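Thread: Modeling a multi-component assembly for a lab meeting

Hi all, long-time lurker, first post. My supervisor asked me to bring a structural picture of a complex we are working on to next week's group meeting, and I have zero experience with this. I have the sequence lines for every component (795 residues in total). Could someone generate the structure of the whole assembly? Inputs are pasted exactly as I received them:
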Amino acid sequence: MEQKTRQVLIAEDLRKSYGPRPALRGLSFSLHAGRILGFLGPNGAGKTTAIRILTTILEPSSGRFLVDGVGSDRPEEIRRRIGVLPESLGFPKNMTGTELVTYFGRLYGLSAAAAKAKAATMVEAVGLQARGRSLIGSYSRGMRQRLGIARALVNDPAVVFLDEPTLGLDPQGQQELLKLVTWIARERNAGVVLCSHQLPEVESICDDVVILNTGQVVVQGPVAEIIGSADQATVRIQVPATAVAEAEVALAGTSAVARVAASGSAGWLRVELVSGSQAAMNGQHVHNKLLDALIRAKIPVLGFQAGGGRLQDLFLQITQGAIE
Amino acid sequence: MNREQGAAPAGSGSPTWWIVFTKELHELWIGGRALTLLLIYSLLLGIQTYVLASNSELSLIPPNEMVYETLKGAIAVGIFISLIIGADMISGERERATLEGLLLTPTNRRQIILGKFLAAASPWPAALAIAIPYMTVLGQGDAVLRPAILWGALIGTVLAPAFTALGMLISYWCNTNKTSLFISLGVYILMLLPAQLPGRAQTGAAGSLLQQVNPMASHAHYLSKVLVNNRTFDEFWGWLVAPAAFAVLVFVLLFLYAGPGMSLEASKAFALRLGRARAQVAALLVGLLALGAMPLLAQQTGGAQASGQTLPLTIDIDLGYKTVKTTDHVLFNTVVTNTGTEASPPLSVAMNIINLNAKGDVVDPEDWSPQRTQYMEQLGPGQTATQSWRVNAILDGDYMVYIVLLPAPSGPEATSHPVSSSGVHLTVTPFTKLNPRGVLPYAIGGPLLVLVGIVLIYRMRRRRIDMGGSE
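Re: Modeling a multi-component assembly
Sure thing. I ran the full set together rather than chain by chain. Output:
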C-alpha cells in the first residue's frame, strides 16, 4: 500500500505566457501512484498548455515539476517516465498496430526482440490482439485510441497523460476505454491524468480533480469532497415545449422557489430554490412540492434533475457555464 | 497484471537514427510512395530516350550528347524526387499529427533528423541505377558512358541528398504539407529557370555569375563541358564549387540548427532557431556565395594574366577536341577579351578548318560551316564578346578547327597582328545511325520492371499482414 501513496507527479507554481498573454497562472497540484486525476476546464482554460508543459513539449515560463522524482530540468529523463495519449494523435496508415508499438518500444531503448515481445503484450492488454497484424489504416477510432494507449504504456510509465481519450467514441467504446484507464491506474499502479470534457465519466472513474479556469486552479481535491461542496439549490425540470410558460407560472407560485427560467428550447426549466430551503424543508420534500405543483397544473413532467451532487453542476457553477 | 516499475531503459537497443531510418524506409518503400515516384521517373526517362533516339535519326544528335541529355534529365528528376520526399518529412508528420508522439520519446532530435534524411535520400541510388540502361543504349558503345556514370553518380550523390536536406529544411519551417511542397516546387523552378534563359542572357557577366552560383545550372554546365565537349576536370572544376557549397550549407542548416530545434509548431521552431543563428547563417551564406563565384574570379584573373602579351586582345575557345560521326555537328563558343586599357579597333573573327591527313581532301570551310567570319565593332577596355560557332562534320577524317582574331588595320599603310585561338581537334568517324525501334524495349522495359517491383512488394506485404476491414 505504501507504493500506492507515492507521489508520482508534483507541479509547483507552473506559469506560462505567450508574449504578454498569460496562459497558465500558477498551477500547483500533486498526483499519487494508482490514482486518476481529472484535469478539467472550459476551452482556453490552459489545460493543453499545462499538459504540454508536464509532458516536456513546452517549457514553462516559471515554476517546476517532478515526475517520479525527476525534476523538470531533465526533460529526456522525464520522457522515459511518462506515457501520453495526445488529443489528436495521428498514426502511420501503412504500419500494423504491432509494428507501431514495436517501433516506439525501440525508441524507448528496447532491443528489437524485447520491443516485439513488449508490443505483443501491450496490444493484447488493450484488447487488440486480433487486429495487431492489421494495417492501422483499417482501424476504427476506438481501436486507434486503444492502440494509442498501448503505445503510451510501452515504456511502463509512472504517469500517463490521456487527453480526451473518449472523444468521438460510441457509448460502448467509451465504456471499454474507461475500463482501460481504470486498469492502468489500479493494476499497473501508474498515476493517470485524464483530460476530458465528459464530466460524468470523470466523476465515475477519477479519484481527484483539478478544475482550471483562465489559467488558474479554481478547485482541486478528491472528487467526493468537491461534489459535496457544490451548491445544491438548483433543479432542472423538463416539460413539453408548449407548456413552458404555464409551468413557469405554476412553479413560481411554490413557496421554496426563488426564480424560474426557461433553459434552451427543449422544454427545460432551471429552478433556483430559496437559500436554505433544503435544510428547512428536507430537499426531497422540496422536490416533491415542485412536482406536485406541476401535476396539479396538469403539466406532464418529462425529465427531472436534482441540482448539486454532480461534478457537472459544480463545474458549471465555477466556470459560469463556459462549457455549455 | 502489475507493471514493471521504473523508467524505460536508456540506450540498450539500436541507435535512434537507425530505428527512425528503418521505419521511414519502410514507410517510403513499402508504403509505395518512392516506387510510385520512380515509376513516373522511369516513364519520363523512357519517353525521353525514345524521343532522343528518334531525333538522332532526324537531327543527327551524337551519342555523347544523348547520354548527356539523359543524365541531365535523370539528375534533374532525381533531385526533384529527393526534394519533394524531403519536403514531406517534418511538415507531413505535423499535418498527420504523428510528430508529437515522436517528440514525446526520450530520443535525440538530431538523430531523428538524420534517420529521416537518410531514408528520404534513399530513392536517388535507385533513380541512377534505372538511368544506366537508358544511357547505355543511347551511348551505342561510345566512350562517354563510363565518365557519364561516374560523374552522374558523384554529382547526383552530392546534389540529391542536398536537395533532400533543402526539402526537409523547408518542411521544418512549415506547418502544413501544402505550404512545404508549394515552396519546394517554387525553389526548384527558380533554380531550373536560369538554364531556360536565352543564350545571350546566360553568357553575359550577370548570367554567368547566376549560372555559377546556381547548383542546378553549374553542374549541368560542367557535365556538358566534360561529356559533350571533352573538356577536363582541371579546366572546369570551378563549376562544381556551387553544388558542393550548396550541399554544405543545407547540411549545416539542417543538422546543426534545425535538428536540435525540431518542435511541434513550425513558426516557433523557425523564430527560435533562426533568431539565435542569424549572424552565423549570414556569414555562412556570404562565404558560400564567394565560393560559388570563385570560378568567375579565377576566369577574370586568367584574363588579366594574358594582358602581359604584346597585343591586348585574347581569344579563348571552350572546346579542345571532339569525336563525332559524319553528319553530326559540333557547337562551341569563343570569347574575345580586350585586356588593354584602350578600346580596340573593329575586329574580325574567322574560322579555319585544316585536314590533318596530308593525303586527305582539301577542306572547303563553306561546306562545313554556315559561319565563316563574324565581325564586331570596337571592344572597350576589359570588355568581352562571345561568338557561337557550328561546324558540320561532312566527311570522315582528322581535322583541326581554329579561330583567328583580326584587328582592323589603322589605315591603308598599316597592318595588324592576328591572334589565334587554340585548336579544336575534330575526329570524324563514318556515318552510323541509332534505330529508335531498338530503344523501345528499354523505354518500355524500365517502367515495367518498376511496376513489377511494386506488385511484388505489395504481395509480400499482404502475406505478412491481415487485410481485415474496420471493426
